[in-house]
Amino acid sequence: MEHESKKVHLVLQSQGNRPQTNGGSHPGQTEPAKMDSSTVVARAVSSEEFIAKLRDEVEHGGHGASHVFVILGASGDLAKKKIYPTLWWLFKDGLLPAHTYFIGYARSNLTMEQIREKSLPYMKVQKNEEEKVEEFFKLNTYVSGKYDVKDDFIRLNEAIEKKGKSNRLFYMALPPSVFESVTLNVKNCCMAQGDKWTRIVVEKPFGKDLDSSNQLSNHLASLFKEEELYRIDHYLGKEMVQNLMVLRFGNRIYGPIWNRDNIASVVISFKEPFGTQGRGGYFDEFGILRDVMQNHLLQILTLVAMEKPPSTDAEDIRNEKVKVLKSIPPPSQENVVLGQYVGNPDGSGDEKEGYLDDPTVPKGSVTPTFATVALFVKNERWDGVPFILRCGKALNERKAEVRIQFKDVAGDIFREGEVKRNELVIRVQPSEAIYMKMMAKTPGMSIDCEESELDLTYGSRYRGVKMPDAYERLILDVFMGSQIHFVRSDELSEAWRIFTPLLHHIDQEKPKPIPYKYGSRGPAESDELLQRNDFQYTGSYKWRPGVAAKPNL
Ligand SMILES: NC(=O)C1=CN([C@@H]2O[C@H](COP(=O)(O)OP(=O)(O)OC[C@H]3O[C@@H](n4cnc5c(N)ncnc54)[C@H](OP(=O)(O)O)[C@@H]3O)[C@@H](O)[C@H]2O)C=CC1
Ligand SMILES: O=C1O[C@H](COP(=O)(O)O)[C@@H](O)[C@H](O)[C@H]1O
After folding, report:
1. 425, 455, 517: which to mutate for ligand 1, most atoms within 8 A of CB?
2. What's the mean pLDDT in 287-294?
């Protein structure tokens, strides 16, 4: 099978922030730099030609260093479901630097064979890839050790050193309770030497509120430089989230209308059709605001609202994102709706079970599994425009999207109520799409208006193109030293500042969330909040893909 991932492309830029223009064949064209991961940052773009060059660099670049990717928490759920599969996909697609080795580390007394058995079901290995998968696992080893025992990390370091002088990536697939001791031991025992680099990938949760997050940030800052830290928010690795930058700044048409004069409201939604399903113990400690809203949805908000950065360099982008966050005050109570799902007696299977029926959830818990919150960006561009974040578990569908609703047409000349608002929808998942709902003349003799759309459906426009998984892009970014799609510590701190008052109110006052049925759209109060915040739902729009309108005579 030909590499589907030929559509994963990289353009390398010098760390010094501007694109390198080493006399590319066209003026101003970015010339790919050498694949030396210590001196370049990367961003994803398209070009068949480029991937060939990248492969050439990977196979023949030979900069002397090997790379060792250490999975801390190798026995866990994240490791088997995401990290090992992602490393395999990158490996089989030839996207990793030559001489990359993988070392799993965890407390359990496991063999590599056992880790392999646990991960294989998630690796989607094709029939003709058996040899390749053998090759992959030959590059893997496992070290068992405790998270707070220095001697065990000295042993881990010895295992790394066996791979020669190497750049080192440490992926913290671990519960927060051991972050501090593990990072301290990595710093004391396992750092790369000389001109080789060390990068630490940290998974959320990054704390539980502003104080605990700042405490963790201070701890990490005392051990590592910010450029060594990669805080993962996997939504930043999703195709359509990354597309927001291109959509906004690569098109002339959006710039002039992207503001409070033209946009009525922005709704950013995350919906899942399943509940906590035995993960209730973890979830109950955090709730939907910490699980999804404070990170994934707020990150998307910053990309929708930020000013144009001076370049696509990570620091320039992150500076703009921080400015947006700094302009957002904590939400007021009347702009918050909290819900918790209850069983649907008419539903089938899991739908009958409410959140409180999950045996791993503490009795009588008031942890929200649904939330809608309207935020306001108090700056010249956005003053008064609600940014409504909605997320929930056990809803009617799986969907993540950004919905930008424009204001009414001024001085409308058509029949009253006929003209509906324009809406630009960026569907993150499933079935990536961008569509603009717009009015058009009904085909035929009359001059009636009807709701139609400009439709960029990825499945038809980019037929057969495989979208890389978010983790694939992000792990590759870590190898390449690109921090564009990672969260900087000041972003994190601002994100917690916005949500901490609400979170503390929930933790302390324990307001009762509004019950909503498993499989529903969530509480009706959420739609009312949207309505109050200038999002108009008419229910009149019908999508008719590929269906010709009836001639209107
Ligand atoms: N390229 C493509 O693939 C395209 C697909 N389509 C499809 O067409 C269908 C309709 O398009 P869509 O953009 O959803 O337009 P709609 O106007 O039908 O829905 C707009 C939004 O309103 C929400 N909503 C539903 N009921 C209410 C309510 N009572 N009060 C407030 N909000 C409500 C919807 O779902 P909720 O609140 O539950 O999230 C959605 O977010 C969709 O299935 C869409 O995926 C359309 C265009 C292009
Ligand atoms: O971070 C999280 O995200 C997942 C949803 O991720 P997706 O890529 O499948 O959309 C969510 O289920 C989980 O609760 C949350 O912790």
Report:
1. 425
2. 97
CA distance 460 to 465: 10
Closest ligand (CA of 291): 2
Under 8 Å between Cβ of 92 and 192: no
pLDDT in the model for residue 548? 55
Residue 291 CB–ligand 2 contact under 6 Å:
yes
In whole angstroms, how far apart are CA 18 and each of 27, 40, 314, 320, 525? 15, 11, 11, 17, 48
Residue nearest to atom 9 of ligand 2 (CA): 272
CB 501 within 8 A of CB 508: no
Atom of ligand 2 nearest to the CA of 204: 1
Nearest-angstrom CA–CA distance, 241 and 85 = 22
Residue of 77, 233, 234, 271 best suited for mutating to test ligand 2, as the one with most atoms within 8 Å of CB: 234
The angle, 0 to 180 degrees and rounded to 10, between the axes of the packed helices 314-326 and 298-305 is: 100
Active site residue 99: no
Q: What average pLDDT does this structure show over 420-434?
A: 97
DSSP string, 474-521: HHHHHHHT--TTB--HHHHHHHHHHHHHHHHHHHHH-PPPEEEETTB-
DSSP state at residue 462: T
What are the structure tokens assigned to 171, written together? 């992926």
Measured from the alpha carbon of residue 277, the closest ligand is 2
Host H or E run for residue 550? none
Options 9, 234, 296, 485, the catalytic residue: 296
Q: Would the CB of 433 count as within 6 Å of ligand 1?
A: yes
**283 confidence band (pLDDT: 50, 70, 90):** very high
Q: 238 CA to middle of ligand 2, Å?
A: 12
How far CA 145 is from CA of 59, 66, 72, 114, in Å, comes to 34, 24, 10, 16
Report yes or no: 208 and 178 within 8 Å, Cβ to Cβ.
no
pLDDT surpassing 50 at residue 67:
yes
Rounded to whole angstroms, the Cα distance separating 232 from 485 reads 8
List the residue whose alpha carbon is closest to atom 16 of ligand 2: 291
Q: Which atom of ligand 1 is nearest to the CA of 399?
A: 39
ipTM score for this prediction? 0.96
For 433, the enclosing helix (H) or strand (E) is strand 433-441
